């Protein structure tokens, strides 16, 4: 299997195995001190006129470019419907993800992510930045999961591979379409901007096991995503995702339907928009009785791409650039070392 360019970006910033290997969630009855956070207020914020829900965008709406650009600008997150992907595909991926996470721990650790790798089984890459561990296990796929699937199911790996590869293909097409709309909003006179990038993606299967003490555990600690955008499917219409919204605090984002997809702006799109689009600070809560699974697809330019703020020609006069040019690889390397301080390091 060829090394992905994403893996090249991360191999210079290795993690220790203790920050990669999840605990054995199947064998513990209470939250250990290593995973015990200060009390978390996980009461969902009620949605009313002063606290509207996240924008919902119909991809066949004739005003989709303006609506999506406005959603990126005001929220940094939105839901898409009429995206053309059948509910059966989400069900298939969830079924295969649950099949993986239901395996005994000694089986899953056979495909644990390497200390300087991207793909395989493990915890979130942000783990070393926090004093407590997260109630989460994940499995990351870039292109084909064949090598890992053969380790997990030596005689029965084909279905898993077919489902994951098919889903990635659909997500890549959709991600490209969304980027076309967003870049058209940012720079309508330069629609060719997107053609200057070669894109790649990564599929992250997330598992949040039932938690004995959900008020003192976190599925994912607060963070932003690194690439252009993330497409999230929260399976079985379950919720756990929260974003930090200015003047509103932590706000729960519940999918409007089983096939609705949640899309959020990542760091590189924030830079590309010259800070106009917020990179959404978000976290994930856990549940006492539901084992939640979610599917996250991360999409962005290949690591040798140069990201620079897009400023349209008619707005060029008087516009102050907020960020210097940065390659994707340099940015990912800086974030791997400094997490949320990274923006201050590339600010002009």
From TrEMBL:
Recorded hits in InterPro entries, A to Z, give: DIOX_N, IPNS-like_FE2OG_OXY, IPNS-like_sf, Iron_ascorbate_oxido_reductase, Oxoglu/Fe-dep_dioxygenase_dom
Domain Fe2OG dioxygenase residue range list: 198-301
Against Pfam families, the record matches this protein to: 2OG-FeII_Oxy, DIOX_N
The protein's UniProt keywords, in alphabetical order, are: Iron, Metal-binding, Oxidoreductase, Vitamin C
UniProt similarity note: Belongs to the iron/ascorbate-dependent oxidoreductase family.
Q: What is this protein called?
A: Gibberellin 3-beta-dioxygenase 1-like
Q: Which gene encodes it?
A: LOC107031088
């Amino acid at each position: 299997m060829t090394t992905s360019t994403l893996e090249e970006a991360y191999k210079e910033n290795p993690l220790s195995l203790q920050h990669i290997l999840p605990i054995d969630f199947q064998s513990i009855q209470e939250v250990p001190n290593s995973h015990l956070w200060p009390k978390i207020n996980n009461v969902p914020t009620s949605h009313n006129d002063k606290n509207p829900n996240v924008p919902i965008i119909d991809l066949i709406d004739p005003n989709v470019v303006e609506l999506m650009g406005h959603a990126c600008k005001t929220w940094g997150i939105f839901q898409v419907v009429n995206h053309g992907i059948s509910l059966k595909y989400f069900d298939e991926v969830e079924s295969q993800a649950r099949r993986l996470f239901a395996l005994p721990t000694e089986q899953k650790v056979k495909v644990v992510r390497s200390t300087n790798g991207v793909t395989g089984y493990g915890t979130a890459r942000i783990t070393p930045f926090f004093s407590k561990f997260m109630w989460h296990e994940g499995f990351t796929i870039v292109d084909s999961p064949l090598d890992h699937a053969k380790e997990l199911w030596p005689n029965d790996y084909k279905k898993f591979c077919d489902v994951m590869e098919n889903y990635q293909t659909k997500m890549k097409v959709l991600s490209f379409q969304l980027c076309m709309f967003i870049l058209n909003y940012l720079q309508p006179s330069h629609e060719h901007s997107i053609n200057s990038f070669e894109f790649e993606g990564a599929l992250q299967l997330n598992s949040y096991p039932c938690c004995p003490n959900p008020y003192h555990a976190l599925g994912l600690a607060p963070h932003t995503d690194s690439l252009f955008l993330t497409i999230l499917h929260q399976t079985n219409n379950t919720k756990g995702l929260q974003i930090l919204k200015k003047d509103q605090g932590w706000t729960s984002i519940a999918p409007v339907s089983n096939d609705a997809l949640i899309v959020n702006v990542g760091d590189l799109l924030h830079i590309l928009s010259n800070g106009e689009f917020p990179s959404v600070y978000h976290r994930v809560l856990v549940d006492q009785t539901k084992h939640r699974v979610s599917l996250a697809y991360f999409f962005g330019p290949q690591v040798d791409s140069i990201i620079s703020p897009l400023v349209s020609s008619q707005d060029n006069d008087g516009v102050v650039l907020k960020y210097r040019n940065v390659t994707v690889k340099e940015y990912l390397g800086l974030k791997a070392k400094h997490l949320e301080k990274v923006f201050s390091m590339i600010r002009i």
